[in-house]
Known about the structure:
five-stranded mixed β-sheet
Amino acid sequence: xxxxxTSCPSPHAEGSGARHASPPPPGAVRGDDGSxxxxxxxxxxxxxxxxGVAEIIYNAxxxxxxxxxxxVKDQVLTEKIDRILARKRQLERTDLxxxxxxxxxYVAELELGRDLSQAIVHIDCDAFYAAVEELDRPELKDxxxxxxxxxxxxxxxxxxxxxCRSGMAGFVAMKLCPQLICLPLNFDKYTAxxxxxxxxxxxxxxxxxSASIDEAYLNxxxxxxxxxxxxxxxxxxxxxxxxENTKITVSAGIAANAKLAKxxxxxxxxxxQFRLASDRATIMAFMKDLPTRKVNGIGRVFExxxxxxxxKTCGDIYEHRANLPKLFGEKAFQFLMQCYxxxxxxxxxxxxxxxxxxxxxxxxxxxxxxxxxLRAKLWHTAEELEKDLERTQFKGRTLVLKVKLHTYExxxxxxxxxxxxxxxxxxxxxxxxxxxxxxxxxPGMTLRLMGLRVTHLVSMKKGPIDFFGLSKRTTSAxxxxxxxxxxxxxxxxxxxxxxxxxxxxT
Length: 506
Protein backbone atom coordinates (compact mmCIF):
# COMPACT_ATOMS: atom_id res chain seq x y z
CA UNK A 1 0.00 0.00 0.00
CA UNK A 2 1.38 3.39 -0.98
CA UNK A 3 2.12 5.77 1.89
CA UNK A 4 0.10 8.90 2.38
CA UNK A 5 1.91 11.82 0.69
CA THR A 6 2.40 13.82 3.85
CA SER A 7 4.86 16.65 4.14
CA CYS A 8 7.31 16.68 7.02
CA PRO A 9 7.88 20.18 8.45
CA SER A 10 11.61 20.85 8.38
CA PRO A 11 13.31 21.61 11.69
CA HIS A 12 16.10 23.25 9.70
CA ALA A 13 16.30 26.37 7.61
CA GLU A 14 14.63 26.18 4.22
CA GLY A 15 16.37 27.22 1.06
CA SER A 16 18.95 24.46 0.92
CA GLY A 17 19.91 25.76 -2.50
CA ALA A 18 21.26 28.96 -0.96
CA ARG A 19 25.01 29.28 -0.82
CA HIS A 20 26.60 28.95 2.60
CA ALA A 21 30.21 28.75 3.64
CA SER A 22 31.29 25.22 4.49
CA PRO A 23 32.26 24.74 8.11
CA PRO A 24 36.02 24.49 8.33
CA PRO A 25 37.32 20.98 8.93
CA PRO A 26 38.58 20.75 12.49
CA GLY A 27 42.28 20.52 13.16
CA ALA A 28 44.09 17.69 14.79
CA VAL A 29 43.10 18.45 18.36
CA ARG A 30 42.91 15.44 20.64
CA GLY A 31 39.75 14.96 22.61
CA ASP A 32 37.75 17.26 20.36
CA ASP A 33 34.63 15.64 18.87
CA GLY A 34 34.47 18.34 16.19
CA SER A 35 36.41 16.33 13.62
CA UNK A 36 34.18 13.30 14.11
CA UNK A 37 31.03 15.41 13.81
CA UNK A 38 32.36 16.93 10.62
CA UNK A 39 33.11 13.49 9.21
CA UNK A 40 29.69 12.10 10.12
CA UNK A 41 28.03 15.12 8.52
CA UNK A 42 29.40 14.28 5.08
CA UNK A 43 30.34 16.58 2.19
CA UNK A 44 26.82 16.91 0.80
CA UNK A 45 25.63 18.43 4.08
CA UNK A 46 28.71 20.49 4.83
CA UNK A 47 27.70 22.73 1.94
CA UNK A 48 24.04 23.10 2.87
CA UNK A 49 24.34 25.24 5.99
CA UNK A 50 21.72 23.25 7.87
CA UNK A 51 22.09 24.23 11.49
CA GLY A 52 21.74 21.41 13.99
CA VAL A 53 22.12 18.54 11.53
CA ALA A 54 25.64 17.68 12.71
CA GLU A 55 24.48 17.46 16.33
CA ILE A 56 21.50 15.27 15.44
CA ILE A 57 23.64 12.89 13.38
CA TYR A 58 26.27 12.74 16.10
CA ASN A 59 23.77 12.00 18.86
CA ALA A 60 21.82 9.52 16.74
CA UNK A 61 25.00 7.61 15.90
CA UNK A 62 26.62 7.79 19.34
CA UNK A 63 26.94 4.43 21.02
CA UNK A 64 26.38 2.42 17.84
CA UNK A 65 28.97 0.01 16.48
CA UNK A 66 29.30 2.23 13.44
CA UNK A 67 30.01 5.26 15.63
CA UNK A 68 32.61 3.40 17.67
CA UNK A 69 34.42 2.25 14.54
CA UNK A 70 34.38 5.75 13.05
CA UNK A 71 35.69 7.15 16.34
CA VAL A 72 38.68 4.82 16.14
CA LYS A 73 39.34 5.79 12.52
CA ASP A 74 39.03 9.46 13.38
CA GLN A 75 41.54 9.12 16.21
CA VAL A 76 43.98 7.30 13.92
CA LEU A 77 43.66 10.13 11.41
CA THR A 78 44.19 12.74 14.13
CA GLU A 79 47.41 11.02 15.17
CA LYS A 80 48.53 10.89 11.54
CA ILE A 81 47.88 14.61 11.19
CA ASP A 82 49.99 15.23 14.30
CA ARG A 83 52.87 13.49 12.53
CA ILE A 84 52.31 15.53 9.36
CA LEU A 85 52.42 18.76 11.37
CA ALA A 86 55.59 17.66 13.14
CA ARG A 87 57.19 16.97 9.77
CA LYS A 88 56.03 20.37 8.50
CA ARG A 89 57.69 22.10 11.45
CA GLN A 90 60.93 20.30 10.63
CA LEU A 91 60.74 21.38 6.99
CA GLU A 92 60.19 25.00 7.99
CA ARG A 93 63.62 24.95 9.63
CA THR A 94 65.37 23.73 6.47
CA ASP A 95 66.38 25.34 3.19
CA LEU A 96 63.62 24.57 0.66
CA UNK A 97 64.90 26.78 -2.13
CA UNK A 98 65.71 23.76 -4.31
CA UNK A 99 62.22 22.32 -3.71
CA UNK A 100 60.68 25.68 -4.55
CA UNK A 101 62.54 25.93 -7.86
CA UNK A 102 61.57 22.37 -8.69
CA UNK A 103 57.91 23.06 -7.95
CA UNK A 104 57.94 26.21 -10.07
CA UNK A 105 59.52 24.32 -12.95
CA TYR A 106 56.74 21.74 -12.74
CA VAL A 107 54.10 24.47 -12.76
CA ALA A 108 55.68 25.99 -15.87
CA GLU A 109 55.73 22.58 -17.52
CA LEU A 110 52.05 22.04 -16.75
CA GLU A 111 51.15 25.44 -18.16
CA LEU A 112 52.74 24.53 -21.48
CA GLY A 113 50.28 21.66 -21.80
CA ARG A 114 47.13 23.65 -20.97
CA ASP A 115 44.44 22.91 -23.58
CA LEU A 116 41.54 25.37 -23.83
CA SER A 117 40.27 24.18 -27.21
CA GLN A 118 37.80 21.51 -26.10
CA ALA A 119 34.22 21.69 -24.79
CA ILE A 120 33.90 18.95 -22.19
CA VAL A 121 30.58 18.23 -20.50
CA HIS A 122 29.82 16.31 -17.32
CA ILE A 123 26.25 15.02 -17.12
CA ASP A 124 24.80 14.02 -13.75
CA CYS A 125 21.27 12.66 -13.39
CA ASP A 126 19.51 14.36 -10.48
CA ALA A 127 18.85 12.00 -7.54
CA PHE A 128 18.62 9.30 -10.18
CA TYR A 129 17.21 6.30 -8.29
CA ALA A 130 14.73 8.52 -6.45
CA ALA A 131 13.69 10.22 -9.69
CA VAL A 132 13.01 6.86 -11.33
CA GLU A 133 10.91 5.75 -8.36
CA GLU A 134 8.87 8.97 -8.54
CA LEU A 135 7.88 8.19 -12.13
CA ASP A 136 6.15 5.01 -10.97
CA ARG A 137 4.79 6.56 -7.79
CA PRO A 138 3.92 10.23 -8.33
CA GLU A 139 2.61 10.51 -4.78
CA LEU A 140 6.24 10.44 -3.60
CA LYS A 141 7.10 13.74 -5.29
CA ASP A 142 6.04 15.86 -2.34
CA UNK A 143 7.23 13.70 0.55
CA UNK A 144 10.72 12.92 1.86
CA UNK A 145 11.82 9.47 0.74
CA UNK A 146 14.99 7.48 0.15
CA UNK A 147 16.07 4.43 -1.80
CA UNK A 148 17.85 1.77 0.24
CA UNK A 149 17.01 0.23 3.57
CA UNK A 150 19.93 -0.29 5.98
CA UNK A 151 22.03 2.33 4.17
CA UNK A 152 20.54 5.04 1.95
CA UNK A 153 21.65 4.77 -1.67
CA UNK A 154 20.07 8.10 -2.52
CA UNK A 155 17.24 10.33 -1.37
CA UNK A 156 15.04 12.93 -2.97
CA UNK A 157 15.51 16.66 -2.44
CA UNK A 158 12.72 16.86 0.14
CA UNK A 159 14.66 14.38 2.32
CA UNK A 160 17.89 16.30 1.77
CA UNK A 161 16.34 19.39 3.35
CA UNK A 162 16.28 17.43 6.61
CA UNK A 163 19.93 16.40 6.30
CA CYS A 164 19.42 12.93 4.83
CA ARG A 165 22.03 11.91 2.27
CA SER A 166 23.37 8.93 0.35
CA GLY A 167 25.57 6.60 2.38
CA MET A 168 23.77 7.47 5.63
CA ALA A 169 22.62 4.71 7.96
CA GLY A 170 18.86 4.31 7.83
CA PHE A 171 18.42 4.65 11.60
CA VAL A 172 20.27 7.98 11.53
CA ALA A 173 18.14 9.24 8.65
CA MET A 174 14.99 8.37 10.58
CA LYS A 175 16.21 10.52 13.48
CA LEU A 176 16.58 13.45 11.11
CA CYS A 177 13.21 12.84 9.48
CA PRO A 178 10.91 10.36 11.29
CA GLN A 179 8.46 10.41 8.37
CA LEU A 180 11.11 9.34 5.86
CA ILE A 181 9.90 6.61 3.50
CA CYS A 182 12.56 4.05 2.53
CA LEU A 183 12.11 2.01 -0.65
CA PRO A 184 14.01 -1.13 -1.70
CA LEU A 185 16.49 -0.95 -4.57
CA ASN A 186 15.35 -2.04 -8.04
CA PHE A 187 18.34 -2.14 -10.38
CA ASP A 188 16.34 -3.53 -13.30
CA LYS A 189 14.25 -0.38 -13.28
CA TYR A 190 17.25 1.94 -13.01
CA THR A 191 19.27 0.27 -15.78
CA ALA A 192 16.28 0.42 -18.12
CA UNK A 193 15.93 4.15 -17.53
CA UNK A 194 19.68 4.71 -17.83
CA UNK A 195 19.56 3.03 -21.23
CA UNK A 196 17.17 5.74 -22.36
CA UNK A 197 19.54 8.47 -21.16
CA UNK A 198 22.41 6.74 -22.90
CA UNK A 199 20.59 6.77 -26.23
CA UNK A 200 20.38 10.58 -26.08
CA UNK A 201 24.02 11.06 -25.09
CA UNK A 202 25.23 8.98 -28.02
CA UNK A 203 23.68 11.48 -30.41
CA UNK A 204 25.98 14.23 -29.11
CA UNK A 205 29.15 12.20 -28.65
CA UNK A 206 29.26 8.63 -29.90
CA UNK A 207 32.35 8.06 -27.76
CA UNK A 208 30.93 9.45 -24.54
CA UNK A 209 32.39 8.05 -21.33
CA SER A 210 30.56 6.66 -18.35
CA ALA A 211 31.50 7.45 -14.77
CA SER A 212 28.64 5.47 -13.20
CA ILE A 213 25.06 4.50 -13.95
CA ASP A 214 23.96 8.14 -13.64
CA GLU A 215 27.03 10.11 -14.76
CA ALA A 216 28.83 10.59 -18.06
CA TYR A 217 31.42 12.76 -19.78
CA LEU A 218 31.06 14.03 -23.34
CA ASN A 219 33.27 15.99 -25.70
CA UNK A 220 30.86 18.15 -27.70
CA UNK A 221 33.51 20.14 -29.56
CA UNK A 222 32.85 18.42 -32.88
CA UNK A 223 29.07 18.61 -32.42
CA UNK A 224 29.25 22.36 -31.78
CA UNK A 225 31.36 22.93 -34.88
CA UNK A 226 29.20 20.72 -37.09
CA UNK A 227 25.94 22.36 -36.01
CA UNK A 228 27.35 25.88 -35.55
CA UNK A 229 26.05 26.00 -31.98
CA UNK A 230 27.37 27.41 -28.72
CA UNK A 231 28.22 24.75 -26.06
CA UNK A 232 25.64 26.17 -23.65
CA UNK A 233 22.91 25.90 -26.27
CA UNK A 234 23.94 22.34 -27.12
CA UNK A 235 23.77 21.28 -23.49
CA UNK A 236 20.41 23.01 -23.00
CA UNK A 237 19.13 21.05 -25.98
CA UNK A 238 20.61 17.78 -24.72
CA UNK A 239 19.08 18.19 -21.28
CA UNK A 240 15.70 19.03 -22.77
CA UNK A 241 15.82 15.90 -24.93
CA UNK A 242 16.73 13.72 -21.97
CA UNK A 243 13.82 15.09 -19.98
CA GLU A 244 11.37 14.82 -22.87
CA ASN A 245 12.28 11.21 -23.62
CA THR A 246 12.96 9.84 -20.14
CA LYS A 247 11.19 12.30 -17.78
CA ILE A 248 14.50 12.44 -15.88
CA THR A 249 16.24 15.76 -15.21
CA VAL A 250 19.99 16.08 -15.49
CA SER A 251 22.48 18.71 -14.41
CA ALA A 252 25.54 19.58 -16.42
CA GLY A 253 28.92 21.25 -16.20
CA ILE A 254 30.68 22.67 -19.25
CA ALA A 255 34.38 23.46 -19.13
CA ALA A 256 37.74 23.03 -20.80
CA ASN A 257 38.48 19.68 -19.17
CA ALA A 258 36.88 16.80 -17.29
CA LYS A 259 38.02 17.91 -13.84
CA LEU A 260 36.42 21.33 -14.20
CA ALA A 261 33.28 19.99 -15.88
CA LYS A 262 32.71 17.63 -12.95
CA UNK A 263 32.99 20.50 -10.47
CA UNK A 264 30.71 22.72 -12.57
CA UNK A 265 27.92 20.13 -12.80
CA UNK A 266 27.29 20.64 -9.08
CA UNK A 267 26.96 24.42 -9.31
CA UNK A 268 23.32 24.60 -10.41
CA UNK A 269 21.81 21.31 -9.29
CA UNK A 270 19.16 20.14 -9.66
CA UNK A 271 18.11 20.50 -13.30
CA UNK A 272 20.59 23.21 -14.19
CA GLN A 273 23.87 23.80 -15.93
CA PHE A 274 26.96 25.92 -15.45
CA ARG A 275 29.64 26.87 -17.94
CA LEU A 276 33.13 27.91 -16.93
CA ALA A 277 34.70 30.02 -19.66
CA SER A 278 37.73 28.46 -21.34
CA ASP A 279 40.01 31.29 -20.35
CA ARG A 280 43.09 30.86 -18.15
CA ALA A 281 42.42 33.89 -15.95
CA THR A 282 38.79 32.85 -15.40
CA ILE A 283 39.81 29.31 -14.53
CA MET A 284 42.50 30.44 -12.09
CA ALA A 285 40.05 32.79 -10.37
CA PHE A 286 37.47 29.99 -10.16
CA MET A 287 39.94 27.58 -8.54
CA LYS A 288 41.39 30.18 -6.16
CA ASP A 289 38.45 30.14 -3.75
CA LEU A 290 37.26 26.58 -4.44
CA PRO A 291 37.31 24.40 -1.28
CA THR A 292 39.58 21.41 -1.81
CA ARG A 293 36.78 18.93 -1.05
CA LYS A 294 34.94 20.11 -4.17
CA VAL A 295 37.62 18.45 -6.31
CA ASN A 296 36.99 14.86 -7.31
CA GLY A 297 39.72 12.77 -5.72
CA ILE A 298 40.03 14.73 -2.48
CA GLY A 299 38.10 12.88 0.18
CA ARG A 300 37.48 13.56 3.84
CA VAL A 301 40.88 12.19 4.94
CA PHE A 302 43.01 14.17 2.52
CA GLU A 303 40.83 17.24 3.09
CA UNK A 304 41.61 17.15 6.81
CA UNK A 305 45.31 16.62 6.18
CA UNK A 306 45.44 19.57 3.80
CA UNK A 307 43.42 21.75 6.15
CA UNK A 308 45.83 20.97 8.97
CA UNK A 309 48.76 22.47 7.04
CA UNK A 310 46.74 25.52 5.96
CA UNK A 311 45.39 24.43 2.58
CA LYS A 312 41.65 25.10 2.64
CA THR A 313 41.11 26.13 -0.98
CA CYS A 314 42.80 25.22 -4.25
CA GLY A 315 44.32 28.68 -4.27
CA ASP A 316 46.16 27.88 -1.03
CA ILE A 317 48.05 25.03 -2.68
CA TYR A 318 50.60 27.26 -4.38
CA GLU A 319 51.92 28.76 -1.16
CA HIS A 320 52.74 25.27 0.16
CA ARG A 321 54.12 23.86 -3.09
CA ALA A 322 57.66 23.34 -1.75
CA ASN A 323 56.44 21.24 1.21
CA LEU A 324 53.89 19.06 -0.57
CA PRO A 325 56.16 16.33 -2.02
CA LYS A 326 57.83 15.71 1.34
CA LEU A 327 54.54 15.75 3.27
CA PHE A 328 52.32 13.75 0.94
CA GLY A 329 54.48 12.24 -1.79
CA GLU A 330 55.17 12.97 -5.44
CA LYS A 331 51.82 11.79 -6.82
CA ALA A 332 49.92 13.97 -4.40
CA PHE A 333 52.12 16.96 -5.25
CA GLN A 334 51.50 16.56 -8.98
CA PHE A 335 47.76 16.08 -8.47
CA LEU A 336 47.48 19.14 -6.23
CA MET A 337 49.40 21.40 -8.59
CA GLN A 338 47.00 20.39 -11.37
CA CYS A 339 44.13 21.28 -9.06
CA TYR A 340 45.66 24.68 -8.35
CA UNK A 341 45.97 25.39 -12.08
CA UNK A 342 42.55 23.96 -12.95
CA UNK A 343 44.07 21.42 -15.31
CA UNK A 344 42.58 18.07 -16.24
CA UNK A 345 42.24 15.62 -19.05
CA UNK A 346 40.46 16.45 -22.28
CA UNK A 347 40.49 12.95 -23.70
CA UNK A 348 37.05 11.38 -23.42
CA UNK A 349 36.67 7.76 -24.45
CA UNK A 350 34.33 4.80 -23.88
CA UNK A 351 34.78 3.17 -20.51
CA UNK A 352 35.60 -0.19 -22.07
CA UNK A 353 38.78 1.25 -23.54
CA UNK A 354 40.27 1.81 -20.09
CA UNK A 355 42.41 -0.92 -18.63
CA UNK A 356 40.41 -2.77 -16.02
CA UNK A 357 42.17 -3.61 -12.77
CA UNK A 358 39.69 -5.92 -11.05
CA UNK A 359 36.24 -7.49 -11.10
CA UNK A 360 34.35 -7.86 -7.85
CA UNK A 361 31.02 -8.05 -6.12
CA UNK A 362 29.87 -7.55 -2.55
CA UNK A 363 26.63 -7.40 -0.61
CA UNK A 364 25.43 -6.11 2.73
CA UNK A 365 23.01 -7.96 4.97
CA UNK A 366 21.71 -8.08 8.52
CA UNK A 367 24.21 -9.24 11.13
CA UNK A 368 24.99 -12.90 10.46
CA UNK A 369 27.04 -15.27 12.65
CA UNK A 370 25.72 -18.77 11.87
CA UNK A 371 28.57 -20.70 10.22
CA UNK A 372 26.35 -22.53 7.76
CA UNK A 373 24.63 -19.32 6.72
CA LEU A 374 27.96 -17.58 6.29
CA ARG A 375 29.26 -20.37 4.07
CA ALA A 376 26.07 -20.23 2.04
CA LYS A 377 26.62 -16.49 1.66
CA LEU A 378 30.21 -17.13 0.51
CA TRP A 379 28.94 -19.62 -2.09
CA HIS A 380 26.33 -17.13 -3.29
CA THR A 381 29.02 -14.45 -3.58
CA ALA A 382 31.15 -16.83 -5.65
CA GLU A 383 28.16 -17.48 -7.91
CA GLU A 384 27.61 -13.77 -8.45
CA LEU A 385 31.29 -13.15 -9.17
CA GLU A 386 31.27 -15.97 -11.72
CA LYS A 387 28.41 -14.22 -13.53
CA ASP A 388 30.32 -10.94 -13.59
CA LEU A 389 33.49 -12.61 -14.82
CA GLU A 390 31.60 -14.44 -17.54
CA ARG A 391 29.92 -11.22 -18.62
CA THR A 392 33.14 -9.19 -18.65
CA GLN A 393 35.19 -12.10 -20.04
CA PHE A 394 37.93 -12.03 -17.42
CA LYS A 395 39.53 -14.40 -14.97
CA GLY A 396 41.91 -13.46 -12.17
CA ARG A 397 45.22 -14.66 -10.79
CA THR A 398 44.62 -13.14 -7.35
CA LEU A 399 41.48 -13.67 -5.25
CA VAL A 400 40.53 -11.14 -2.57
CA LEU A 401 38.05 -11.78 0.25
CA LYS A 402 36.47 -8.77 1.93
CA VAL A 403 34.30 -8.83 5.05
CA LYS A 404 32.84 -6.16 7.29
CA LEU A 405 32.33 -7.14 10.92
CA HIS A 406 29.23 -6.15 12.87
CA THR A 407 31.49 -3.56 14.48
CA TYR A 408 31.94 -2.00 10.99
CA GLU A 409 35.61 -2.97 10.88
CA UNK A 410 36.61 -4.00 7.36
CA UNK A 411 39.05 -6.87 6.82
CA UNK A 412 40.55 -8.18 3.58
CA UNK A 413 42.54 -11.30 2.81
CA UNK A 414 43.99 -12.43 -0.49
CA UNK A 415 45.50 -15.54 -2.04
CA UNK A 416 46.99 -16.57 -5.37
CA UNK A 417 45.40 -19.75 -6.75
CA UNK A 418 47.65 -21.98 -8.90
CA UNK A 419 45.78 -20.80 -12.00
CA UNK A 420 43.60 -17.87 -13.05
CA UNK A 421 40.09 -18.46 -11.68
CA UNK A 422 36.61 -17.54 -12.87
CA UNK A 423 34.35 -20.52 -12.06
CA UNK A 424 32.26 -20.46 -8.90
CA UNK A 425 33.62 -23.82 -7.72
CA UNK A 426 37.19 -22.53 -7.85
CA UNK A 427 36.28 -19.13 -6.43
CA UNK A 428 34.62 -20.79 -3.45
CA UNK A 429 37.38 -23.40 -3.08
CA UNK A 430 40.15 -20.83 -2.76
CA UNK A 431 38.10 -18.31 -0.76
CA UNK A 432 37.04 -20.83 1.88
CA UNK A 433 40.49 -21.30 3.51
CA UNK A 434 40.82 -17.53 3.90
CA UNK A 435 37.35 -17.38 5.40
CA UNK A 436 38.00 -20.32 7.74
CA UNK A 437 41.19 -18.69 8.98
CA UNK A 438 39.26 -15.51 9.78
CA UNK A 439 36.74 -17.55 11.77
CA UNK A 440 39.57 -18.98 13.86
CA UNK A 441 41.12 -15.56 14.40
CA UNK A 442 37.77 -14.03 15.41
CA PRO A 443 35.70 -16.42 17.56
CA GLY A 444 31.98 -15.86 17.09
CA MET A 445 32.62 -13.76 14.00
CA THR A 446 29.55 -11.75 13.02
CA LEU A 447 29.42 -10.15 9.58
CA ARG A 448 27.29 -7.52 7.84
CA LEU A 449 29.07 -7.51 4.47
CA MET A 450 30.90 -10.02 2.30
CA GLY A 451 32.64 -9.62 -1.03
CA LEU A 452 34.96 -11.36 -3.46
CA ARG A 453 37.20 -9.73 -6.04
CA VAL A 454 39.78 -10.96 -8.53
CA THR A 455 42.77 -8.92 -9.64
CA HIS A 456 45.70 -9.44 -12.02
CA LEU A 457 43.14 -10.07 -14.72
CA VAL A 458 43.51 -12.33 -17.74
CA SER A 459 41.19 -11.66 -20.65
CA MET A 460 39.18 -14.63 -21.91
CA LYS A 461 37.99 -12.80 -24.99
CA LYS A 462 38.75 -9.49 -26.60
CA GLY A 463 35.63 -7.36 -26.81
CA PRO A 464 33.63 -4.54 -25.24
CA ILE A 465 32.68 -4.64 -21.60
CA ASP A 466 30.22 -2.88 -19.36
CA PHE A 467 29.38 0.69 -20.25
CA PHE A 468 27.47 3.47 -18.50
CA GLY A 469 26.68 1.07 -15.67
CA LEU A 470 24.74 -1.03 -18.15
CA SER A 471 26.07 -3.54 -20.66
CA LYS A 472 27.85 -3.62 -23.98
CA ARG A 473 26.78 -0.88 -26.35
CA THR A 474 25.51 -3.34 -28.92
CA THR A 475 23.51 -5.61 -26.60
CA SER A 476 20.71 -5.29 -24.11
CA ALA A 477 21.63 -4.65 -20.50
CA UNK A 478 22.27 -7.42 -18.05
CA UNK A 479 20.12 -7.16 -14.96
CA UNK A 480 21.29 -7.52 -11.39
CA UNK A 481 19.56 -10.44 -9.65
CA UNK A 482 20.36 -9.25 -6.14
CA UNK A 483 19.11 -5.75 -5.27
CA UNK A 484 21.57 -5.47 -2.39
CA UNK A 485 24.63 -6.24 -4.51
CA UNK A 486 27.20 -3.53 -4.76
CA UNK A 487 27.64 -1.93 -8.15
CA UNK A 488 31.37 -2.54 -7.86
CA UNK A 489 31.06 -4.65 -11.01
CA UNK A 490 30.65 -1.48 -13.06
CA UNK A 491 33.62 -0.01 -14.84
CA UNK A 492 35.66 2.30 -12.71
CA UNK A 493 37.59 4.67 -14.90
CA UNK A 494 41.33 5.10 -14.32
CA UNK A 495 40.37 8.40 -12.79
CA UNK A 496 37.82 10.97 -13.70
CA UNK A 497 40.70 13.37 -14.02
CA UNK A 498 44.12 12.42 -15.32
CA UNK A 499 46.65 12.55 -12.52
CA UNK A 500 44.02 11.99 -9.86
CA UNK A 501 45.82 11.06 -6.69
CA UNK A 502 45.13 7.44 -5.72
CA UNK A 503 45.75 8.01 -2.01
CA UNK A 504 42.23 9.03 -1.02
CA UNK A 505 38.98 8.67 -2.93
CA THR A 506 35.99 8.54 -0.58
